[in-house]
Structures are given as C-alpha cells and as structure tokens.
C-alpha cells in the first residue's frame, strides 16, 4: 500500500560538501554516504556521486544546535530517511519569480484612448469612490479591514475652456482633476497617516511634456541591519544635512535613500571597540590612548575645526578631537589629553577664540583598542528626478506710522528669502519661493506625478497665496491609483508580537456618479456619469518568502525532533537554538527531492509492499542556492533523473 507524499523541509543557510556529519552546525546541509565507514566525527559527507551504484544508500542531513543531550533535548542532525539512488523519483525546483504585485487602476483617460477622459460640464458635481481593503487597513483599526474614501469632481458654473490657452475666468477638466488629486493625497486615514502612504494617486494628462526644473539625484545605500528606527538613526547620524529614508527591506538588511547634489561620502559601519584588558591590543586593533576628556564650544559656523582644537596643547591625542554637535554656528568638540590642560593653554586658545567655553568632562578614560580597518559602504547613484520652485505671495498692511513690516516678515521666515514685489495703498506685497516635492519620470510623461508644495505658515491672520497655475483646456484627464507594497515583519524577537505580512492594499475604483444635480445645467458628460476603469495590474502575494515558509519550518522541526519552538519566549528559543533560520522578507528557492522507498510487510492476506513517498524540500536563499543545485544535479545524473535549474545563466 502507498499514500500521498509526506513533505519535510530543510532550511539551508550553507552547504557542506566534504567532512563528517557530526561537525554540521545549525543550518548547514549535506548529503551523507551511510554505507561508508563512520568515524568518531560521524558519517562521510559526499557531493560527488560519480561511481556510486544506484543501490547505494544516502541520507540528507541538516545540522542542529550544539546542545548537551539530556532527557528533553538532543543534538542529532535533522535527517531524511535513508534511500537508494534508485529510490529518487524526481528532483524539481520552485524559484521565486516576483515580489509583491499591486493593484493598479486608472479612472478616466488611460493614456491611450482619448474618449475615456474625464469630461465635466459646468455645474457638474460627481463622486470618486476608492475602496481600500487588506491587512494593512486592519492594523490601522478599520472594521473588516476595509474603508471607503470618497472625493468629488466639482466643476464651476462658469465657462469651460476647450483650447490650449484658456481665457481669464475659464475653467478646465485638468484643473478640476488635479485639484481633486491634491485633496486625495492630503486625505488622512485612521492613525493620522496620509492616504498617500498606502496608494500612489497621480493624474493622467495627455498634454504633459517632459518635466523641467532642478535635477535631484537619488542615492542608495545598502546596509546589513534589522531595519529598525535605531538603524536608520545610525545612518542619519553620519549625514546630518541629508534627509534619509529607509526605502526597501531586504532579506538581511535595508536600502536607505537620500537626495543629494553630489555623491555622499561612504558610510562607515560601526565596529566593536574593545576595552584594553592586556598590555597590548589584539591583532587588527590599535591602542586608543587614555587621558583626560574635555569639551570646548567655539563659533566656527559649522566648519571642521578639529585640527585647531588638537593644537590647543601638545598633550592632546592626535585624532581624538570629534565634533559632537553643531547648532546655530556654534560647534562642540570633545578631545582627549594625556595631561590636564594648563590655564595658559586655555587662555591662549580663548584669546584667539573669545567665545570659547571649556568643560572638563572626565578625569580619566579607559584605554581602548580600536579596529584598524573600519568597513565602509559606498552610496550608489540612482534615478535623477526634478524639483521646481513655486512663487508664493502675501500682502501686509503698513503700521500706523506708514512703515512696511519688511524686517519683521524676513525674521519670521529665516529659512526663506523674502522679496518686496510692490507697494501700493498703504500695503506691501511680498514674495518668496518654495521648493516642490521631487517628481520622477514614469514610463510616459502622461503618467507623471504632480509638482506640489506647501505654503509657508501664515503670518498672523495673513495667508500666503500660490501663483495661479496655467491649465490646458485640450487635456484628456484621468486619475491613476496604484497601491503600495506593505511589509510588516521583524526579526526573531518580534515574531510572536507583531504581524508578519508582505502584501499590498487592495483597491477598487469607481467614479463619475452625480451627487447633486443642478437643474440649470446638463450633468454627466459624454460618458453618462460612469467613468471607465482600466486595470493595469492585479495584486498578488510574493512567492516563497521566509515569513510564509516558517510554518513549514516548524512542521519539520516537530517531525524531526518531536519538539516545537517556544511561543512568546525569546530566551528559550535562543538558548535551545530554536530561532528561525528564515529571514522574513527574503525570497527562497525551493528544491524538492521526491523519494519512494518500499518494504515488505506481513498482513492478514499475506505479504504486501509498504510504500513511503517523501518530498524533501531544501529552502535556500538565492546565491547560496547554487551550491545546493550543484549537489542535487550531480545526484540527479547518477540517479538517472532530470537535472534542475532555478534561474537562467548570464551570458559569457
């Protein structure tokens, strides 16, 4: 008798091709020859099966934590059943093909068919409906993990323009649609989070041309870390002048992105320093002198004054001066001196820098061993995008003495340059420029996002007004709604405490339905009030990601060890080696060996064949996968089954 295949999973962090089975560490995978002579280090590991007969028996091994065996725990490797090469039915592979796919829908003009454009008539008041659903909404607190957001396309009662350059006072479809898009992007959902964090909402405009403005280059930095806010802080701390965002989650790290005018200096990875415990530092480390710690504040407008600080005294340790703070042109430096500073040394520095303030920080510091070669990671230039400068104006009346408040206005906005535009009728008009958001080109200029900006804060009761924008009455208009990927996953210590998700918000779009009918105007436009929805892509979950495979890993643990991990007990999992081998957001290649073994058993009706079928899965990250693939293909050739290949080869 036989039954369906039993699945067993090995999570492979590395492959061992030689040696002995008892030396396998947790996550190491190997094939062993169980018929070879064992030694005190276990069974022989093999990766070259040439010359083995099909009747030869092998076994799949995966190392376990090095624990002292007791009544509760053992330290034997996880292993398959022994099988002959002739028992191998097939070897196959399932490779991750895509990451997170998202819903992408267009309401109105789709960039191709001009008849699909959103078309309003004077006095129209029509509704856009955006339904969002999925786990991300549930985490925010929405009932049934869904929320419906509505916006209105409201046309003025004036004259609609249908020419490229509208006359004064005329309105256009472009104006109505773009204003609705701006309102949608400012919409706040539960948790005081902008809707734009979950969906990219941009206009589709048939009259767009290539963007103009100032170039802004995106630079990317890839770092191995846990992706916490503390990790972001470490990166941000080395680049105080840049606004750095964590933009991508990797299997064992993060991608950080900054916009800069030039390539940022390489990122220095924090490496462990050692408190000096012996007369000399270990190999690879240099002694960092002990001494007395001081700080000094000087006005240097943020310039690098470390050399000047180290010149205060001949006793100051070279390289010990560090700028630890800079604010308003005043910098604070700390430094180490092998002897206390004298009054004469301090007075001499104060004579040259009258604003200098010395502080005695510590009477002594421990001797340290600093690493000789700090690891650095280079930034990589990415896409070049654009920003624009937008003019805002404000009109302020003069005081009772007839004096314009020019100085007061500039003082209220120190980060802006305020200019006088004109003066008339006891008032002055002031202007300033504000930099817009960064906008990148898409597959077509029709799909480019809007340049948007925030007005400066009000000056008392007076609000800044943006210069009017020019619109095109011939533009065919639509609105693109593209969901954003949503990754919510942490490392081992967060596994039982936060959801483990790699998904995207699902969206459903509709629009063009009349809300209020104005009896003086025809309503609905040429489409009868129902705008076409074009679906560009449909959401799907990622394949073979670690967070989706952890249940299989746990099932194998129970099958191999008869035990399971601790729930809500990170300490227990750590000391017993039960932490997962799977990175949450890492895609994995899944290699499968189907093995069919049989034995003869005695039943009521006499002897019968007992058949067991096992599917042994090797879950391995791309990169490491090649070692697994090489071993399996060598095994396949000797067993007489087809070889496998997870990914295409690059051309020579």
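^ Assign residues to that structure.
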């Amino acid at each position: 008798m036989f039954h369906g295949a039993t699945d067993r999973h090995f999570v492979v962090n590395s492959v061992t091709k030689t040696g002995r089975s008892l030396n396998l560490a947790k996550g190491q995978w190997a094939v062993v020859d169980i018929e070879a002579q064992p030694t005190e280090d276990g069974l022989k590991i093999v990766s070259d099966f040439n010359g083995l007969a099909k009747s030869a028996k092998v076994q799949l091994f995966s190392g376990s934590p090095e624990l002292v065996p007791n009544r509760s725990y053992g330290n034997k490797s996880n292993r398959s059943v022994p099988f002959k090469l002739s028992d191998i039915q097939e070897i196959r592979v399932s490779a991750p093909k895509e990451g997170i796919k998202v819903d992408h829908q267009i309401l109105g003009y789709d960039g191709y068919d001009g008849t699909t454009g959103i078309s309003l008539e004077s006095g129209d008041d029509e509704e856009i409906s955006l339904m969002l659903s999925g786990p991300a909404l549930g985490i925010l607190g929405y009932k049934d993990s869904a929320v419906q957001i509505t916006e209105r396309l409201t046309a003025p009662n004036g004259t609609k323009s249908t020419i490229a350059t509208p006359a004064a006072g005329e309105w256009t479809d472009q104006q109505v649609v773009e204003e609705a898009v701006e309102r949608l992007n400012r919409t706040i959902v539960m948790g005081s989070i902008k809707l734009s964090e979950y969906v990219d909402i941009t206009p589709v405009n048939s009259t767009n041309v290539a963007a103009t403005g100032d170039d802004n280059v995106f630079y990317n930095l890839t770092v191995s870390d846990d992706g916490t806010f503390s990790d972001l802080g470490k990166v941000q701390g080395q680049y105080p002048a840049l606004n750095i965002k964590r933009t991508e989650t990797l299997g064992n790290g993060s991608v950080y992105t900054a916009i800069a005018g030039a390539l940022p200096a390489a990122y220095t990875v924090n490496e462990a320093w050692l408190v000096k415990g012996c007369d000399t530092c270990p190999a690879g480390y240099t002694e960092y002198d002990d001494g007395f710690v001081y700080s000094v504040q000087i006005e240097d407008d943020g310039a690098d004054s470390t050399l000047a600080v180290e010149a205060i005294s001949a006793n100051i340790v070279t390289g010990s001066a560090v700028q630890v703070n800079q604010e308003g042109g005043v910098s604070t430096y700390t430094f180490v001196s092998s002897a206390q500073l004298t009054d004469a040394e301090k007075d001499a520095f104060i004579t040259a820098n009258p604003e200098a303030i010395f502080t005695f920080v510590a009477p002594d510091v421990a001797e340290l061993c600093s690493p000789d070669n700090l690891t650095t990671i280079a930034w990589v230039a990415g896409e070049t995008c654009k920003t624009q400068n937008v003019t805002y104006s404000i009109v302020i009346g003069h005081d009772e003495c007839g004096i314009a408040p020019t100085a007061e206005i500039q003082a209220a906005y120190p980060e802006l340059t305020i200019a006088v535009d004109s003066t008339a009728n006891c008032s002055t008009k002031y202007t300033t420029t504000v930099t817009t958001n960064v906008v990148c080109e898409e597959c077509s200029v029709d799909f480019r996002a809007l340049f948007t900006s925030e007005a400066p804060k009000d000056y008392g009761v007076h609000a800044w007004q943006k210069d009017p924008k020019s619109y095109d009455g011939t533009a065919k208009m639509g609105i693109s709604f593209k969901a954003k990927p949503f990754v919510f996953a942490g490392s081992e210590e967060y596994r039982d405490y936060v959801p483990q998700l790699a998904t995207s918000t699902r969206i459903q779009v509709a629009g063009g339905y009349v809300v209020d009918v104005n009896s003086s105007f025809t309503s609905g436009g040429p489409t009868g009030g129902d705008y076409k929805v074009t679906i560009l892509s449909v959401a799907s979950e990622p394949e073979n990601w670690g967070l989706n495979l952890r249940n299989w890993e746990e099932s194998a643990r129970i099958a191999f060890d008869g035990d399971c991990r601790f729930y809500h007990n990170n300490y227990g999992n750590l000391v017993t080696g039960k932490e997962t081998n799977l990175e949450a957001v890492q895609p994995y290649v899944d290699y499968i060996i189907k093995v069919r073994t049989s034995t003869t058993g005695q039943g009521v009706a006499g002897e019968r064949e007992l058949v067991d079928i096992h599917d042994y899965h090797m879950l391995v990250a791309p990169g490491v996968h090649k070692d697994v693939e090489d071993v399996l293909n060598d095994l396949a050739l000797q067993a007489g089954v087809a070889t496998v290949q997870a990914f295409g080869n690059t051309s020579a």
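The longest helix spans residues 546-561.
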